[in-house]
Each structure stands twice: as C-alpha cells, then as structure tokens.
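Incident log, structure service

09:12 report received: a user says their structure output differs between two submissions of the same chain.
09:20 pulled the input from the user's history:
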Amino acid sequence: MRKPLTILFSAALVLTLAATALAQTTSEQLPGTWILAPNPRAESGTLVFNDDGTYVLEERHVADGVQVGVTGQYLVDESASPVRIDLCLEQCGGPGSEWTTRFGILRFLEDGGLEIRTSPDVNPPTEFTTEEDPYTMILTRGGKF
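09:34 re-ran on a clean worker, output below:
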C-alpha cells in the first residue's frame, strides 16, 4: 500500500510544480538573457531583460556586419491579447518616445523560446505570422539572473 501512495504523492508534486511554472506571468518569465536567432535584419545578437524593467539589445546587422547596442525600458501589457511589449529607447512615455519605441507583441513558444514581433510604426502588430520579416525576433533562453 505504501508504494501506490508514494507514486500518487510524486505525481501530485509534479503536477503542482508544473502548475506553478505555468502560473508565472509573462513579466516573471521574461527576465534573463535571450539569444537572437538569425533573421533578415540581424545575423546574431542577445536581448537581456532585467528585473527592473530595463533591457539591453545587442545585434550584428546582416547588411553591413556592424554590431549595434540599444538600451532602454520595456513595458509589458499582459491584459492585451496577444501580450504587448514596448521596447523604448531610454525611457517609455517621454516626449518623442513614440518615435524611438518598438511597439510589439510577444509569446512564449512550446520549446521554451520567445517570439517578439514588432512594427515599423506606432501600430503594434495584432497577430503572429509564419512569414519571415525583419521585425520578428525568435529568441532562446541563454540564462536567468
């Protein structure tokens, strides 16, 4: 009788841990280092989301091989569907920030990766697409703080 109870307890523990992981909000899952997969705009790069709402994006451009870095603040709107993210240069909401912000949507992929699709203008995308474009970043987890 002891063995079935052990198995039952173990199964309950696994389900509880899985439910806890699924219950994490997007903002809780986001912090850490993400590795950028090659895309039409960048051949490589990293995107680091910090717990304090800041980010650092470094990427090497396909066209000229130049390494560029951007830092700023990010805002996540989990009430939107799909979840929205604003990647602001410097600080979000400042004068003129609408011209220096990447407005986007994000989702976590089944393999644990992250997809962020931004827009070339102030209107964030409304859905994800299977078409490859320079405004979509596919990222894999590179480490968590």
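09:41 both user submissions now match this output. Likely a transient worker issue. Closing.
09:42 reviewer note: Helices lie at 2-23, 26-29. Residues 2-23 form the longest helix (22 residues).
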